[in-house]
Amino acid sequence: MVGIAKQSWEAERYAEAGAFVPVLGMPVVELLDPRPGERILDLGCGDGILSEKIAAAGATVVAVDAAPDLIAAAKARGLDARLMDGQTLPFAAEFDAVFSNAALHWMRDADAVIAGVKRALKPGGRFVAEMGGHGNIASVIVALTAVLARRSVLAGPLNPFYFPTAEAYRARLEQAGFAVNEIAILPRPTVLTSDIEAWLDAFCQAFLGAAPDPDRAAARAETVELLRPVLQAEDGRWILDYVRLRFRATLPAGR
């Protein structure tokens, strides 16, 4: 899928290393404020935990994701879950709202995403989301860049993420015709629910996968040691330098 980060997603591994993702996504559900009878698209639904929360409010949810294993997990929850590239959404004036949590930063073509969301929404519809913002996991990316450079691998072209500033993303939304009701960068140091090795395997495959195969475990270990003085607390917990971009935008009612 063009523009989707080169990353394989396994539901079990995602649930272990990213258990904090849906928990910390609940304020975004509150900002969405789903209502009974609404039809809502969950863009980048993962394994469907937050889709369930939205449906529990009485909304009809269509959950989409580009990862087959995660879609299978979402379907196992009884959701209307569909395998789909978020940069080529096929919907037209179908939804009252589009919701997304921790997914938009994996979709490099931001303008295509926003255009697809706009098409999918009914007049007056809202787009409510949280994604990685400028500076998100900066220490991790610096460490991986250094480790790969020792192996003569350039990390820049491998970087799968799009972490915009609030100003940049506001401009993209407004250019597409959205009115931005609120948008903000939110620093959010995040305690991992797994060890950092599992987190690196789950979320940084695009980088570590570029290390020569016999040397991959050593590359990961070097990354961990570079990060330890910065991200590991005295009690042994790993606290990552997460920075989020959260926003709510609406389309004109009479478009």
Mean pLDDT across all amino acids: 91
Class from secondary-structure proportions = alpha/beta
- What is the percent of helical residues? 25-40%
Order of helices and strands: HHHEHEHEEHEHHEEHHHEE
- Please give the count of helices: 11
Which radius of gyration do the C-alpha atoms yield? 18 Å
Overall, the morphology is globular
What does this structure look like?
It is a single chain. With 255 residues, the chain is α/β, with parallel strands linked by helices. 38% of the residues lie in helices and 22% in strands. The protein is built from eleven helices and nine strands. The protein has helices spanning 11-17, 20-24, 26-32, 49-56, 68-76, 110-120, 138-149, 166-175, 196-203, 205-208, 216-231, and strands at residues 39-43, 60-65, 80-83, 95-101, 121-132, 179-187, 190-191, 239-240, 243-250. Strands 3-2-1-4-5-9-6 form a seven-stranded mixed sheet, with helices on both faces. It has a two-stranded antiparallel sheet with strand order 7-8.
Q: TL;DR?
A:
With 255 residues, the protein is α/β, with parallel strands linked by helices. Helix content is 38%, strand content 22%.
Identify the notable features of this structure and list them briefly:
alpha/beta, 255 residues, disordered N terminus, single chain, 9 strands
